[in-house]
Amino acid sequence: MGRERTPTRGLEAELAKHKGIELHGGSIRVVFMWRRVRFRESLGLPVTKANIRHAALLRAAIIHEIKTGHFDYSRHFPNSKNATNHSQPKDDKLTALVARYKPLKAVDITPMTEEKYGYALDICTELLGQDRLASILLPEDIQLLRTKLISTRAPSTANHYLATLAGFLAWCESNSYCRKGLSAACIRFATIGRDPDPLTKSEFEDLINKGCLHPQDSAAITLAIYTGLRPGELCALAVEDVNLEAGHIHITRAITADGTFKVPKTGKPRSVLLMPPAAEACKNLMALVAGDTPRSIEVYMNRYESRIETVTPLLSPTTQARKKNINWWFIPTSWNTKWAAIQKRSGIRPRRPYQTRHTYACWCLSANGNLAFIAKQMGHKDFTMLVEVYAKWMDEESSGELNRIWNNLQTGMSLKRPQLKQIDQK
């Protein structure tokens, strides 16, 4: 048997210059790590200085592609058995997988939510690298993405992106497009919940007396303060929802920023009892739209089911508008603009429109309102949310509540000693 030819000193010196290049069977072989596995591929080239340098450049290109997530085994080594075992399908790139995932996710969410999800996925994909292969992503990549997101975004926004990405990565994991554990690496950032910032009675009076230039504005803000409706629910109210004789309004829909009607946040309708100021506000709003023609709208229960209603907007931009072509319904964004202008004229400290809902809850709690009743009025499943969000206002009233209970115990109730059961002893 012949012995393997020993390279000359000049070739040995050239080999020593380049890491990951070796000789095997009289040919040049490149060595590299991919997916934590060492691979060796023969190039079938004779051993010359020029070919050694060529192999070194090829290996450098492979290492770069591996680091950037663009490595395709079959492109560099089409005849290798490893090309079959480790080749990457075209749709293994993040952009292609996201394009496949979006319509699959869309069947379970509303068009508005679909748009938000799509935007979040596009941002995350861009930061990770659109042409990267999902199969080579590491938890380290997700950790780096977290640092990029939080550097320019609020924690709540970053958490929304991470939650959306986690759902996509879980889908990739279940379909074996990527390694396990990536979705778990989408750890949300800890946030400190903002305390409610309710209006004081004097601020409310300034809003009405100084900020509102039209009866519709003062009536709408009064209704929001004394019912605790969400802005989307307030804007979607119709004359047909109001029952002044029974003293309540029926909440069956909300309106989104793109003008789509949907069921309320909890998915269930509810009746909200009207305090005297709220009832008066409804009466004024109904008078302002008394001559308006009912409009046909489509209310979505989910993505594929909807109902048609013919109703008259209770709070309509047309009441004050000078233009002829204008929407018949306020949407949350247009209401935000009006609310900001009213606050500015009133001179009070600026707040988000949602604080009218917080104001209702805090005022009711400060008046020792029943927790279960308030929760039902606001559309909560139970009063757990009240306890978590408005504990401060409940604590402030705890001493007064204790005195009230003690006075009732002393004057209005008779205490009876409980009867203990006698145990027969044999």
UniProtKB/TrEMBL annotation:
Q: Which SUPFAM superfamilies match?
A: DNA breaking-rejoining enzymes
Keyword Chloroplast listed? The answer is no
Which InterPro entries does the UniProt record give? DNA_brk_join_enz, Integrase-like_cat_sf, Integrase_catalytic, Min27-like_integrase_DNA_bind, Tyrosine_recombinase_XerCD
Q: Which UniProt keywords apply?
A: DNA integration, DNA recombination
Q: Which Pfam families match?
A: Arm-DNA-bind_2, Phage_integrase
The organism's place on the tree of life at top rank: Bacteria
- Tyr recombinase domain location: 194-403
| Keyword check for RNA-binding | no
Name of protein: Integrase
Q: Which organism is it from?
A: Pseudomonas versuta
